[in-house]
Design a protein that fits this description.
By secondary structure, chain A is mostly beta strands. Chain A has no helices and 11 strands. In chain B, the strands form 2 sheets. In chain B, strands 2, 4, 5, 6, 9, 10 and 11 form a 7-stranded mixed beta sheet that branches. In chain B, strands 1-3-8-7 form a 4-stranded antiparallel beta sheet, with no helix packed on it. Helix content of chain B is 0%, strand content 57%. The radius of gyration of chain B is 13 Å and the shape is globular. Classes of the chains: A mainly beta, B mainly beta.
Chain lengths: 112, 114
């Protein structure tokens, strides 16, 4: 079963605005990762945050993790039309390389 | 960085035939490989986990006799969809796990069964 649940499921914003997507999960995790997927394509790894980390930055991306609430957020600042894609959070459970479970995703549309 | 090569990227086959999809880790050894399928506008659903030299572990509801997984080496895993039917049409993605690079995903295979 899918553990992660992203919200919103769809998000439409103007270019230049910030986009925030949230992800909630149910069980204890080792890591949480965010991926993007352009329509009909493979996955692109964006960022990984470990369970003992609270915030991480990578370029225009900012990820937060709240293990007490079992939630994470992905913020894309100064969005561009090229950021239009689906974004998924994925979790893997504690202990070695366990299976990675994906959420249902947020479809982001950035309007030029 | 790590690269996982997945082939073919697209395949169209006739109903009743079998299709093999390859997932190959380039320049690194993958201790574990995962296979996912994704229906249109949906998330990725884990099908099975495979470790080199041992039988794959399938998720509930996934038919192991229909989706044959072979993980013959630390750099290659294959998924064979046997006796394919139109409802097997989907996007299949593999992922390779390693100590050095974590999880690396292939670019996916679009299977269409006609």
């Amino acid at each position: 079963s899918q553990q992660g649940e992203e919200d919103p499921q769809a998000l439409s914003i103007q270019e230049g605005e910030n986009a925030t997507m949230n992800c909630s999960y149910k069980t204890s995790i080792n890591n949480l990762q965010w991926y993007r997927q352009n329509s009909g394509r493979g996955l692109v790894h964006l960022i990984l945050i470990r369970s003992n980390e609270r915030e991480k930055h990578s370029g225009r991306l900012r990820v937060t993790l709240d293990t007490s609430k079992k939630s994470s957020s992905l913020l894309i600042t100064a969005s561009r039309a090229a950021d239009t894609a689906s974004y998924f959070c994925a979790t893997d459970s504690s202990g070695g390389y366990q299976k990675v479970t994906f959420g249902i995703g947020t479809k982001l549309q950035v309007i030029p | 960085g790590a690269v996982v090569s997945q082939h073919p990227s697209r395949v169209i086959c006739k109903s009743g035939t079998s299709v093999k999809i390859e997932c190959r880790s380039l320049d690194f050894q993958a201790t574990t490989m995962f296979w996912y399928r994704q229906f249109p506008k949906q998330s990725l659903m884990l099908m099975a986990t495979s470790n080199e030299g041992s039988k794959a572990t399938y998720e509930q509801g996934v038919e192991k006799d229909k989706f044959l997984i072979n993980h013959a080496s630390l750099t290659l895993s294959t998924l064979t969809v046997t006796s394919a039917h139109p409802e097997d049409s989907s996007f299949y993605i593999c992922s390779a796990a390693s100590n050095s690079y974590g999880y690396t995903f292939g670019s996916g295979t679009r299977l269409t069964v006609v």
